[in-house]
């Protein structure tokens, strides 16, 4: 009996002026066992040498440069570049913990009908006394694509990240996937180390809450429109 082909994984790394963090992010991907099939860095018009740093990894990393368009647009560009059955995101300032990929793949294989497997997020903070990153003890599940492993075909169903909802485009995308019936499974493991620093988009709590409320409002509107027969759940005006 022929052996079933093992699914391949594309690691997708959007970066904009992330040279201070990018090497650690890429190293954390390249240390995974089993290894990813490809690492694709999409440089969103950086001016700090992020692209040069990525290209310095040689054949292990493919770097694509584009004009600056924001995180959602850069994630969409990364998905278009992906050549594998599965995609896994990592923002340039964060880290995949050791064993991350193996744990998510195990859950995916145990749940062959699911399109998304999500793990938990754990924060890291900079200890100014030692200049080292340290883990915050608690971890939690969060709607964040960087905690997940996603079948590439799910993007054909759900569509791209909506570029109109900057900062919450992944929350919006995951909600749309759920509305369309994409099955999810959860790994009981930390799959993303989120580095908290001065440049995080989430530092402005009030603006972040406002963006989240807008995304949730859009989800409610989609459900109401679908119930009234005016549109399908998960519709989005995002651009590919």
Which structural class matches the secondary elements? alpha/beta
Task: Please give the domain count.
Answer: 1
Mean pLDDT comes to 88
User: Cα distance, first to last residue?
Assistant: 41 Å
**Per DSSP, what share of the residues sits in E-state strands of 2 or more residues?**
25-35%
Give the number of DSSP strands: 8
Helix content: 25-40%
> Which superfamily, in CATH terms, is the homologous superfamily?
Spore Coat Polysaccharide Biosynthesis Protein SpsA, Chain A
CATH class: Alpha Beta
Low-confidence stretches: none
- Structure annotation, total helices: 7
What's the CATH topology label?
Spore Coat Polysaccharide Biosynthesis Protein SpsA, Chain A
Q: Please state the CA-atom Rg, rounded to the nearest Å.
A: 18 Å
Q: Sketch the major β-sheet.
A: 8 strands, mixed
H/E element order: EHEHEHEHEEEHHEH
Task: Summarize this structure as a short list of keywords or feature phrases.
25% strand, 240 residues, alpha/beta, 8-stranded mixed β-sheet, Spore Coat Polysaccharide Biosynthesis Protein SpsA, Chain A
How is this structure best described in words?
This protein has 240 residues and is of the alpha/beta class. It has one domain: Spore Coat Polysaccharide Biosynthesis Protein SpsA, Chain A. Helix content is 32%, strand content 25%. It is built from 7 helices and 8 strands. Strands 1, 2, 3, 4, 5, 6, 7 and 8 form an 8-stranded mixed beta sheet that branches. The model has no long low-confidence stretch (mean pLDDT 88).
